[in-house]
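Example 4.3 (complexes with small molecules)
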Amino acid sequence: MRTSFFSDDTICAVATAPGMAAIAVVRLSGPTAHEMACQVFYQHGKPFPLDKIKGYQSFYGNIVDPSGNHDVLDEVVVTFFKAPHSFTGEDSVEISVHGSVYVQQKLLELLIGQGARMAMPGEFTRRAFVNRKFDLAQAEAVADLIASQNEASHRVAMNQLKGGFSKALQVLRSKLLEITSLIELELDFSEEDVEFADRTQLRSLLDETQTHVKKLMDSFRLGNAIKNGIPVAIVGETNTGKSTLLNALLGEDRAIVSDIAGTTRDTIEEVMNLNGTMFRFIDTAGIRETEETIEKIGIERTFRKISEADIVLGLIDMTQSLQAIKESAEFILNKIDTAQQTLVLLLNKSDLCPTASAECVDLLKSTACEIIGQNEGHVYIQTLSAKTGNGLDQLQKTLSEIQQAMNANHDAVLVTNLRHYEALKHASESLHAVSKGLEDGIPTDLVAQDLREALYYLGSITGEITTEEVLGSIFGRFCIGK
Ligand SMILES: Nc1nc2c(ncn2[C@@H]2O[C@H](COP(=O)(O)OP(=O)(O)OP(=O)(O)O)[C@@H](O)[C@H]2O)c(=O)[nH]1
Ligand SMILES: [Mg+2]
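Answer. The structure with magnesium ion bound is encoded below.
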């Protein structure tokens, strides 16, 4: 349900980034937006005539304090939008001023003097949602679009904004409604104790819907990676050169490097743009047997980061014996789920043993084959000197290649938002309860209840069903002026 929450007043805010700039835009939206703007916007020494306003038109003139001595505050361009053809769906005005902080502030004061109110965070977008300019998932995409810093996250946000995700949800919803109508039919005739609904059709519809929901849930891993950077865990035993590698990738001394085993205790995360893709590199505590409490906690974190990562860079010190190299590789290979993750085994410190490369690489190839069999496509083996930078180019190429393979494996619709993912998870659980209920012969009215729950969760994504609390938390995260 969308309520027209306090949109009977007119709001204003600076829509551009705070601070000094060439120009700034002040936004005004609400039933009296046009009147208020015309009181402070003058052409030829007179307030701009209201009856001249048509939608999508811009005018040049002056901002004037009408209550004072009519001093000109700034020369501006004013664009008028007429309801419902505006971003918010209300009468709106955008005033482009010179980007002085003083001018921006003073203009806001003038508008407030005319009766406007300062907008709350996200209030313009919230009004657009209330006026059905878009659904909730699309409103959230506005925030993602503004935050996008690379091609991939921009593409995903644009797709969501254009309604790609919402359409996928509509398909799901209509499937669920079909199931509900089959079950409700049965409910209507329950006293006659007849099963009207075709149970086979019902089951196959349920399975189909569940598969669809799960597919969307699965896309969250990649969606999240695109939005927040693909998580790349740098792992290995102590002193293998993990922190040296992090620094080399970032091109700065971010992590402490030393020849003391166990230097890194906590994880260190840094996001970096590599050829247009965001990677989130995570340097971890080196893995070894230890009784030291803090180090132990650090190592537990390392294991958690390994399971959360899409890509694992497993560092192995290649100055060790072949037997030790094999054991290190086995240890890492056993920690990876190659169905979900890609592993890059890096034989580090190649500068110290320039002749051993081929032998070590062959050894790791056969070890990988033994442990993961046909999934070997998900394991890369390379030599590297994190210290001299030799092999770093090749590693960066490999990372781009892995990212391209990840991208090629998904549909256009990706779930990128935790709130959406959780709603899908609840919907999936409800659907599971429906299937189980049918199998166990649970009374149809209880099964129908689970179905309604599934519908409720899907509806909560697009905002068909929302509470004030949910809306407040979503729009509260926007900046003022959005
Ligand atoms: N020769 C050489 N030395 C390296 C290389 N990479 C790292 N080292 C050295 O190995 C030692 C350990 O490096 P770190 O980067 O601190 O190793 P780490 O894996 O982060 O170690 P922990 O944090 O203790 O787990 C340092 O003395 C580095 O200078 C390399 O490619 N070649
Ligand atoms: Mg370290």
